[in-house]
Each structure stands twice: as structure tokens, then as C-alpha cells.
Amino acid sequence: MSLHSPLLGSLSRRHGENGLKLVSIAKHKTPAVDMTVHLVAIAGGSGSGKTWLARRLRRRLGSMMGLLSLDDFYHDLSTLPKRERDLRNFDDPAAIEWELFLQTLARIKRGEPAAIPRYDFASHTRRPRTRLWTPKPIVLLEGLWLLREPQARRLYSLSVYLNTPGEVRLQRRVARDRKEPMHERFVAPQARQADIVLDSPIGDVTLGKLAAMVEELNAKSRTVS
Question: Does position 182 have pLDDT exceeding 70, yes or no?
Fold first, then answer.
């Protein structure tokens, strides 16, 4: 899929604090199912505003949009003593159960229902009950490492990286961002894989332009079908 929006205009290059940087938008094959599902990935460091952006977009676009967090796919450490769980490095992508995430993502992309795990960060375990996913035409995903796995990137219709200075993230006192070298090693390089790089904080104008691009994905799907 090639996505072009006249709304971007002169913002095809980084423009001020709230500019959009359009890098590239790859072509993705649409699965042969009743519903065309577009996955929109939002990646960035802890405290970068991923969850804020996803919720704002969902508020603007309403019922057509679902929301999924990579955080719910951390490994279940219930078989380990609590003391040992607390010593685990949750700033490393290896803390994610990628096989389960990719399987779930594939089901969602095909427009199928899915069982979404729910993670409890206080105990570093999964909650007993999963969340039932009902198909949505637009799915917003937010997480630290969404752009690291090539298999996942192939499923995205649009990917966004939030670029936030380290001092800003630290000012927000996010405990999981306490290991800055882990951010530089595992999070920051994802900017090269993103379709769009956003400078945080994000203003209303930029938010509106991004929302219009996501809406355009859904509109194109309805036109094709």
C-alpha cells in the first residue's frame, strides 16, 4: 500500500517541535478475509508519550479503532520466586514473549477474534483471565520494541516512532527507563524502521494530521471493498 496524504504538505521533512518526518510507507498485502485490518504501530522509549498518543487517536477516531499494548506480552514469571522476578531486566526485548505476540498479531490482522493476555506489573505475572479481542478495521499498537521484529513490521500499514530527548523521559520519572544504555541499544535504532518520526511533545496540529492519515487508511479499504 502506498499512502500519500496532501495534509502532510511541507511537513514531509521534520518541521519544528511538532513536525512529521515521512520516511517511507511500505506496501502490504491485504489478507483475503471479510474485514480489512490495518495495524498502526507506535514505538518509542518509556515516557515518550506512546500511550497518550494512542489514546488520543482512539478518542478522535472512535469505534473503528482498537488498542493493543506490547506490555501485555511480557513473559509470565509466575513460576519464579518474587525476589527473582524483581531482578529480571524488563528493559530488554527478550522479556517479551515474541512468539505469542506474533501469533496474536497475525490473528488480529486476519480479522479474527483473539485472546489477549493481561499483564500485572506489580507481580510480573499474567492475570488469570484474558481479554477477548473483537475484530476492528484499525488497530493501534503501542510499545517499546514494536519495530524491532521484521515479521511484525511486515504486518503494519503504518509505523510511528516517537523521538523524545532522554532528559524529558527522565523528568517524567518512569522507572522502567532507568537504564538509558538499554534505550540507546534497543529502542532508539527503531527510528530508522519507522514510516513517520514524531518529535515529542506532540501538538494538536500534528495529532490532527496523523489522525487524518489513519482515517485515510480505513477510507481506502472501504473504497477497495
Answer: yes
